[in-house]
Amino acid sequence: MTAADPATPTGDKSARDAWFSYTNGKVYYVDPVNAAGGHGFRVNGSYSRYVHIAGYPGDRDSGEVQWYCWGTTDRWPSANAYRLGCNFGGGSSGGPWLEDYQPNGLGYVISAMHG
Known about the structure:
Number of strands: 9
CATH architecture of the largest domain: Beta Barrel
Order of helices and strands: EEHEEEEEEE
Strand order of the largest sheet: 3-9-8-4-5
Shape: globular
CATH superfamily of the largest domain: Trypsin-like serine proteases
Strand content: 25-35%
Largest sheet: 5 strands, mixed
Mean pLDDT: 78
């Protein structure tokens, strides 16, 4: 391994994400993005973006049901942050804000729920 890229000796970053399955005495390597899908990631866009968000807000259905919200973001007045008036309560932290959300459930993460 090198100091510049601790992922692998060859510098191949694709090897960072993997899981292994042990079945009937055999070990199988699985690339999770190819097996289950994965979101893209976007940075440095405008504050006006159409997004879909999801979370388990504690103030709705005791946090047991996933809630969704979508719309066009704007800039939070006192911070360099996105804002969307969904009023999700505590417990929904960590949910992705997805731009270009597709019917297959994938999109591009531009932010994550916090608060």
